[in-house]
Predict the structure.
Amino acid sequence: MENVIENWLNLSIMLGWFFLGYSALILIGYHYQLQTLKRRTEQYKFASEKEIKFYEKAARMLGFAVGFIALGLIGKALGTSIETYEYFFVVFISAIIGMAVGYAIKVYLDYYYPFTLEKRLNKIRFKPRHSVSGREMKLLNENEEDIHLTAEMIEEENEFSADYDVWIDELTGEKIIEKYDTHFHTLICEECNFRTLVEKDEEVVQAPTAQNEGVLKKHYSCSYCGHHQTIEAKLPNLERSKELKQELKEEQSV
């Protein structure tokens, strides 16, 4: 019987190391996929959508690893002379330890890590860019970039559905325009100050007419404190919408 228990404890530790390795492979695989993406817009989108999900999966595997290793080590420390029912208590304690580790990491990823992720995303997005000639390009500010954007691009920015960066080589005039999807971004909640405000719904509260702009309301909800927030965006009037569609067709035909 003692040999059977000893074997089970050794197996538990081996399983713990297996899940620990699996957790590390998840993180390595994620960062490898991220680095294989050449364009910064692709890296930005991939990190925005996938990083926390990969980290949460790795955290679950780490929780399993800690639980199994704890079971093996605690069991070995107590020895094989304890009663069988006492091992059930050891299993219970080990499971609690593993779940506590996984849950603590998940809480951190849900409520604190988004700020760190935002810094990483900005590092990807705003790292220096060089033109074909090797010169460092200038990133235009919001006012400077508008003359380089189409009307449709400006409308997308006004509706908070996308953001555009314009890079210019001031000597040669080389220009690069990059689009960043922002609809999946979490915002900072004005109530709890965590970056946990996510878009839940949107509605047109005032339909645009031939001459007048419409109003779009986007409804957000905080996954931490439950706070609800609404942000308004302008919709172009019908004449302007036609112009935008026509400009888009002309651009696509070029």
